[in-house]
Design brief:
This protein starts with a strand and ends in a 5-residue tail after the last strand. Helix content is 19%, strand content 37%. The chain is of the alpha/beta class. The protein has 2 helices and 8 strands; from the N terminus they run E-H-E-E-E-E-H-E-E-E. The chain has a single domain, classed as 2,3-Dihydroxybiphenyl 1,2-Dioxygenase, domain 1, CATH 3.10.180.10. The strands form 2 sheets. Strands 1-4-3-2 form a 4-stranded mixed β-sheet, covered by helices on one side. It has a 4-stranded mixed β-sheet with strand order 5-8-7-6, with helices on one face. This is Catechol 2,3-dioxygenase. InterPro entries: Glyas_Bleomycin-R_OHBP_Dase, Glyas_Fos-R_dOase_dom, VOC_core. Keywords: Dioxygenase, Oxidoreductase. GO terms for molecular function: dioxygenase activity.
Length: 130
Amino acid sequence: MIDHIGFHVSDLTRARAFYAAALAPLGLTVQMEVTEEMTGGHGSHVAFGREGNPFFWIGTGKPAMGGLHVAFLADDEAGVAAFHAAALEAGGTDNGAPGPRPDYHAGYYGAFVIGPDGNNIEAVFHGATP
């Protein structure tokens, strides 16, 4: 089981705004912020999550690499659609409109957006699986 994940971004202010907007429909908000001074010069970081659990981190300190894939669990198909709309409104690029993905498994419903640093960000609802 993964406890948390993080990656570097090229512009923390821009990325924070994008993820705050895109993840809000999934009930995820900023849980923690760490300054450059607090890390002893190893970058500034923002963590998203819920209920005091910061599990998705973005930060500075090293070059952004892009090309990562992160999928966030949605409560239902409407949550997937709301994520997709919010992410596009926040400046993301469509990488797969909300819809069923039966090749993944029965009940898989997802949407994909490319974020500000070229990462593939997804919201998924697993629905009823066999």
